[in-house]
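Table S2 (text version). Query chain:
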Amino acid sequence: MKNKWVRAEFRKAATRKRLFEHRGDRPRLSVHRSLKYIYAQVIDDNKGVTLAFASSLDKDLRTTLKSHKSVDAAKKVGESIAAKAKKAGVTKVMFDRGQYVYHGRVKALADAARAGGLEF
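Corresponding structure-token output:
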């Protein structure tokens, strides 16, 4: 059986391969999930520029959240990244979950971003 690190790297490579087949079409919404926090950013790979960024450490979210690692925190980050992306003029993105399974906090962030007006 392969160890956890090898399986995670395989999932990450498979996700990135599917994304980079369509990389010129639209920016990507990249998600990073640590044990304590969750981060999301909208990246334009053609220019190599981050268009919008949100995390559970943002000042406006820091005071309202009870826990930074909960599903509720991920929902707030999803709403925040959708608002910031729309402000930057982005409505369509590709969702890059990286090595993380589409479940729990990652799914909550994606659903909240969709509800906030992002299409993917």
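Notes on Table S2: The chain has one domain: 4-115. The two ends are 34 Å apart (CA to CA).
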